[in-house]
Amino acid sequence: MLxxxxxxxxxxxxxxxxxxxxxxxxxxxxxxWETTTSNLHSDIETLKERLNAAEKRSETAATELxxxxxxxxxxxxxxxxxxxxLENQRVRGVEVLQGLMGLQNAMFTDPGHIKALFxxxxxxxxxxxxxxxxxxxxxxxxxxxxxxxxNCGISGAAGLVKGLQNVAMLEDIANxxxxxxxxxxxxxxxxxxxxxxxxxxxxxxxxxxxxxxxxFTVCIVNQKERTLSYAGAYGSLCLVRxxxxxxxxxxxxxxxxxxxxxxxxxxxxxxKNYTTENIVLEKDDKIYLKTDGYVNQRGGASNARxxxxxxxxxxxxxxxxxxxxQKKVFEQEFENWRGSNRGxxxxxxxxxxxxxxx
Length: 358
Description:
Elements: H1 2-107, H2 111-117, E1 120-126, E2 134-141, E3 144-151, H3 156-177, H4 184-201, H5 208-211, E4 215-222, E5 227-233, E6 237-242, E7 252-257, E8 277-280, E9 286-290, H6 293-296, E10 298-299, E11 304-305, H7 307-318, H8 323-338, E12 346-352
Antiparallel strand pairs: 1-12, 2-3, 3-4, 4-5, 5-8, 6-7, 6-9, 9-12, 10-11
Helix pairs in contact: 1-3, 3-4
């Protein structure tokens, strides 16, 4: 009986231990489930917040996309408008440029007319832009031919307008005074007087860079009488003459006349007359007039000015060739020297005179 009681007690104790363990395990699992449930609720809330934020971002993105579309359409319309405006401006610019070039062709002497006046010639007129501030003019009166060229110191359309102004004044002086009775220096004096009067009307103020030519060269040629009258305001003349006249030898001498170092503007006050050089011409003489753009062009290995010395050497080497070939040489030499530098406006005129032998 006692043994039975002991066995039953042991079983009861074991059952109680198992029950207690079960209860403890159940409580732990309950606590874990509650924690998991709480975490799950928290995750769900976080997910909801993220979904709400994503919806807001989506709405914002949709609004921004719509705004971007509207702006894109507006910009495209503006681009079309600007393109149309630019095209209209381009067309107007081309029309204005064509008008200026037409006016330039009308005011400057036609190359065909020059060809009729001389045995041979070349005209190298090469503005950096479509038009420029270099100008030239030939005026004929009887046996006298006035040849003039100059540089206004400004490029582009503004330079062309100034150049045309100088050509118009030159023509007016020739028509009023007649070139047959004038010396080259007197032509420059008359031009300077015109500028001086303009300066007086403007209160005595004159800007040399904008209003008066930087250099000006005038020649009056009488091929029948074998004479040439020359004057320059910072403008030079090269006379090329055979070293051995009457022979087939090609050697030439280059005589350079440099004129007065006296610009129109800086000489208003002193009024010293321009110097005239009177030259007796010989058979096969050639003359070359230029503005300063060619010799002032920077380039070469040391980015230096081309200079008058190189120009004289170029003339001595090629002056015996036909004028058209000389033009090609001058142009190629200029481009080779210039390299990648910005080009100056250039003007070089070569004239083979019609002078009979003695």
